[in-house]
Amino acid sequence: MDGMEFFQLSAGKWRSQRTTHHLAFRRAETGESEINVATLAADHPQVVEICRLHQVEPSKAAGGALVSWQGTMAWDRSEEENHTGSTVMVIVPDQDNPRQGRLLRERGYAEIVPVAGRYLIDDEDALVLLTEYETMSSEERFCFVSSDVRMRTSTVKRFGGFSTASLCVETRIGSDLDDERRETLVPQQAQDVLAVRQFQSSLGW
Amino acid sequence: MDGMEFFQLSAGKWRSQRTTHHLAFRRAETGESEINVATLAADHPQVVEICRLHQVEPSKAAGGALVSWQGTMAWDRSEEENHTGSTVMVIVPDQDNPRQGRLLRERGYAEIVPVAGRYLIDDEDALVLLTEYETMSSEERFCFVSSDVRMRTSTVKRFGGFSTASLCVETRIGSDLDDERRETLVPQQAQDVLAVRQFQSSLGW
């Protein structure tokens, strides 16, 4: 598994359910989003442009991904506070190891200097993205539970100290799993939910 | 980092905040718990007993941990549905690799046959526990964000299919981080929370 293979598995439309735990605040915030991922070939104009922005030789890029999203978070204060956006990421593998390398992004939030970062595929074939900004940094870990379910955990540090941890459970839109998700449970599902809750308790909460 | 070192870093009292996403149900459930972890030496009577239960030579155990917890989940239907319990886990490293091996547990929920499982320390020094039951299985991943903050993500599969994903953020009781956690935010914290929310949006939701 290398970076571009991971992006290819991620291609498509996803329904993402996120929960964020703020360290300072003993409550969790939830939200939902639709996310669209499209892979970009190594010679795609946006890939080339981002390489140039980061002064990286475009021929060293393996390719990239265009990620766009539209979401809502429970603590949004107004209609204007929507979470719509898109970003392009480019993978530049290390010469000696295609399972890790540089991750180039577009211009980030409120920063003049384009954001750069690192990626690696860990020994469980999960994709880890490490992104640095001037005052914040994040570590995100993506893993596929199945081809239609992706799990994403991330931590954000602000001024060097841990700020938040998030979990996103993402189901591929149009898959059976996605269709089965409901706002209210049918009896069989309710039984499953209860069984799993009791099971979890026996593992040590 | 080996299994017992990980247990030693985990020793102490933790305040755990959990969110569970049920795949069937597009809502997340939250809850809190206090968790106490005490390490057990390889020759501790409970370690020896669990080895015998699993027909493992007690001298092969590296040690264990006693985990006890008291928690509440938001969807608990009554006062009686409390999540209090304890369990003992024992580490039996593979002969050729102390970073992985068998994980022996006490008798599990509603099962006659004692539960066994595997553990491994992955290349990011996170502890991964894989536990099998007759109709359910779980994969839990524990990692330390700092010595006073531990993050735990887990997935449960029922009848082979993905059922839930959970995130626990755990802060060491008595640490500064734990003291700073509040039910309502002071202005400085509110600023931090907003900054991080905006940042997260720029990463691709």
UniProtKB/TrEMBL annotation, chains A, B:
GO BP terms, alphabetized: protein-tetrapyrrole linkage
Can you tell which superkingdom this protein's organism belongs to?
A: Bacteria
For molecular function, the Gene Ontology terms on record are:
lyase activity
Keywords attached to this Swiss-Prot or TrEMBL record, sorted alphabetically, are: Lyase
Q: What is its EC number?
A: 4.-.-.-
Q: Does the keyword Kinase apply?
A: no
Function description? Covalently attaches a chromophore to Cys residue(s) of phycobiliproteins.
**Family in the record:** Belongs to the CpcS/CpeS biliprotein lyase family.
Official protein name in the record: Chromophore lyase CpcS/CpeS
Q: Which organism is it from?
A: Allocoleopsis franciscana PCC 7113
Name of the gene this protein is made from: cpcS
